Amino acid sequence: MGDIARGINFGATEQVTAAKLHALVDDATVSSIVAADITDGVITNAKISDVAGNKFTGLANIPAGSGVIPVANTNACLLSDAQTVAGVKTFSSSPIVPTPTTDMQASTKKYVDDKAPVFSGSQAFTGNGTFTPGAGINTIFVNAVGGGGGGGGGWNNAGGGGGAGAYVRNYLLPVVASTGYAITIGNAGSGGGAGANGTDGTATTVAYAGSLTLTCAGGIKGIAGNTGTGGSGGTGTNVTITASGATGGSIAAGSTTGMSGANGNGDSAAGGGGGGGYWGTGGAGQLGGVGLAGSGYGSGGGGGCGGGAQAGGNGTPGYVLIYW
To answer: Which of 74, 113, 117, 124 has the fewest beta carbons closer than 10 A?
Structure first.
């Protein structure tokens, strides 16, 4: 046993004597312990319990011959059993933790690095094309957005902004190496002229696994300033998987509804702003001017100003980005 207190040493096989016990703690605390109480010079659990009484609390539960005296201290960190540790603790070296089995358990950097996807390549599509995975590629991560709707033109009232296209992020799809998969990029909706509705954006599609297709719907057009109603965004239900023309169900994970365009307001007011998305910003409606076009991908155009018969802005086209 190493140093315990006051510089007193106990060898691995050395007996604990009354004299050394006195040297370990305040004499007043163990005043009732004398050499005569421990006639053979060896301290055991039973002897300490008999001699010390309540002066050494908790010693009666020490296993005989263990050589360990527990400290009843709520500020101590336990080596086993559950314990709540409060405050900030600084480690001089990184703690070693087991492999996590539940969501809130700690993990090592290596564990996280091993689990994180490592992409070896990517391909972006801003126009229609074909994606052909190389040898050894059997899954891909798809990011896609439909085309944004055009803003409505202003008339007596301001036109509404066009809606953004529905989009999907990092959606995992199965593919077969060296097989071509058709990519169709959604067209942007056009802004409406004075007093005319905009046009809808069209869908972006990614064909995969034979007859299956992932579809991100286009944003809905903004309505002309006769009513001043803003266009609505592509809906989450329009991000779908279809097989042989039949709807296969909505994608729940990784997809989202495109943002709706804002409504146009009253006479001589600015048009409604276009809906924005993950890759684009909706066009603004201007006071006394035409609606601005969206920016980026999949965003809606702004509505035209009311009272001045201003045109709505164009939406922006769709986009596909594939990682593998």
So the answer is: 74
The residue with tokens 């010079």 is 41
Q: Are 160 and 272 in contact (CB under 8 A)?
A: yes
Whether the Cβ atoms of residue 204 and residue 215 lie closer than 8 Å to each other: yes
φ/ψ of residue 229, rounded to 5 = -85, 130
C-alpha separations of 266 from 28, 151, 278, 286 in Å: 92, 16, 30, 13
Instruction: Express each pLDDT in 136-146 by its tens digit.
Output: 999 999 999 99
Beta bridge partners of 320: 125, 144
Block residue for tokens 């002066």: 55
Confidence of residue 291 (pLDDT cuts 50, 70, 90): very high
61-94 pLDDT, tens per residue? 444 444 444 445 566 777 777 888 888 888 888 8
Q: Measuring CA to CA, which residue among 172, 186, 265 is closest to residue 218?
A: 186
What separation, in Å, do the N-terminal and C-terminal C-alpha atoms of the chain show? 59
CA distances from 107 to 91, 97, 186, 318 (A): 16, 6, 42, 39
For strands 167-174 and 255-256, give the pairing: antiparallel
CA distances 101 to 81, 105, 111, Å, are 19, 7, 12
CA dihedral 84, 89, 95, 101 (to 10 degrees): 40
| Calpha distance 292→314 (Å, rounded) | 7
Task: Find, among 242, 147, 265, the residue nearest to 202 by Cα.
Answer: 147
Q: Quick one: CA dihedral 205, 125, 141, 200, positive or negative?
A: negative
